[in-house]
Amino acid sequence: MQTPVPDYLQQILDECGAPNTGATADYIPELADADPEILGICLATTDGVRYDAGDADVPVSIQSISKPFVYALAIAELGLDAVLKRVGVEPSGEAFNELSLEAKSGRPRNPMINAGALTTHALIGGGTASVEERFELVRRGLSDFAGRDLSVDEQVYASELDTAYRNRAIANMLRNYDLIDIEPEDVVRGYTRQCAISVTTRDLAAMAATLANGGVQPMTGQRVVEPAVVRQVLSVMMSCGMYDAAGDWMTTIGFPAKSGVSGGILGVLPGQIGIATLSPRLDSHGTSVRGVRLCGRMSKDMGMHIMEPPQPARSVVRRDRVLRAPSGHHVRVLSLQGTIQFSAAEHVLRIVQGELDGIQRLVLDLRRVDSLNDVAERMLAELVRRVQLDGIAVTVLDPEDRLPKPAAGQPVPDYSPDLAPFADHKRLRRRTAVERRKR
Questions:
Q1: SS3 for 193?
Q2: Rounded CA gap, 108 and 192, in Å?
Q3: Second label for 104, Cα 20 to 30 Å away, from 48, 74, 87, 200?
Q4: What's the short name of a Pfam family annotated to this entry (predicted)?
Q5: What's the rounded mean pLDDT across residues 164-172?
Q6: What residues are paired with 305 via a beta bridge?
């Protein structure tokens, strides 16, 4: 059997491809001459699988899609506090190339506009690297995100540098406010070269999947940045990545994204997939017209909006049974499943609370649990501790060792790989979800 995902991607390309309105970026000669009919899409999973359709292997310059990744590299190198001293995180509500700084601090408002991106680029290498060394750090870093060695499109670089008057003005303004410590022309050259790195839609999806995977490149297994860096980057992408259209994007499509004037859009659904589209014709915000259409279609079809309500927490309780041992003791078996975060863990605590009358042992079965976040681990470990302090024995089925072991001096539960010790127990009743909710 073939997976239907590529067929779905081809279907939405066919259905969203027309009308092909907008215009290519005319202020950069090489981009103005781009084929306006190019249309590609790629999804990359967090376990390293890519699905694509259309022109997903056509190389283009990365342009502003490089910004969140270089921001991540700067934070990883210098720490968040050092970066925040130079670049803010507030939406500007302005176009990407506005000469805009915060009134009080003088910082660029965020790293997604050109003023912030120039500053971020200048931070790489700690202010002591040469132009060439700084760019090589950027190129290698972006290559790590993509999972392959990336190179520069020299024609795009030369074309863009010849017309980089506005970025030169911004860089000189940044130097005037001591926000960059190196020569403005060096910053412009390095940043322009950064934007001219050549990528395909498949590359962009892989880079997005690295962010979706908490900073680990799914194809290579390399940890590129730490999860805390990813959280910072995705937060800024969510609020600032689409410039003066960020509000529309958030309300209608609803996942962190970044656009570029070569026609690319990169999106991230944390913990699930990376998304990339390519179509060179842009709207008035500098964003691909058909790319927005494709992302909107996927968000609607696949429930990708980050504000969509999750599955109800009570679904983590797979079974809730009461057994009677040959000795006459009563055993309550609570089998959990899926991904457990705060709300799901709270639900488990609530259905156990006050419902252990006549129970001599609680069995907590975690064999079908996919993941526990930190707070859920602590909550379930505390459940085990408190039940034991109430005089009830506890058996934990936790072959993956998801729960932390008790601290010294705390009661220790029994551990079992399965339910074999309870095979001779008679089932008395099975509590339904309706019964649990009535309590």
A1: helix
A2: 18
A3: 74
A4: Glutaminase
A5: 94
A6: none
- Stated as kind and residue range, the H or E segment containing 92 is none
Residue 201 half-sphere exposure toward CB, CA atoms < 13 A: 25
Say which of 224, 230, 243, 289 is annotated catalytic.
243
Look up the pTM and report it.
Answer: 0.84
User: Higher-confidence residue: 136 or 284?
Assistant: 136
Helix 184-195, helix 114-123: angle, nearest 10:
100
Instruction: Tell whether the model's pLDDT for residue 186 goes beyond 90.
Output: yes
E strands present in 234-342: 257-259, 264-269, 273-278, 317-324, 330-340
313-438 CATH: 3.30.750.24
Q: What are the residue ranges spanned by the domains of the chain?
A: 5-302, 313-438
Which of these, 193, 195, 201, 194, lies nearest to 265 by C-alpha position? 201
pLDDT bucket at 97, cuts 50 / 70 / 90: low
Residue 104 CA to residue 91 CA, distance in Å, equals 15
Q: Catalytic site residue 243?
A: yes
Alpha-carbon gap, residue 57 to 375, rounded angstroms: 42
Whether the pLDDT of residue 439 is over 90: the answer is no
pLDDT tens per residue, range 303-333: 889 888 766 655 799 999 999 888 888 999 9
Candidate list 261, 348, 352, 363, residue with the active-site label: 261
Q: Which CATH number is 5-302 given?
A: 3.40.710.10
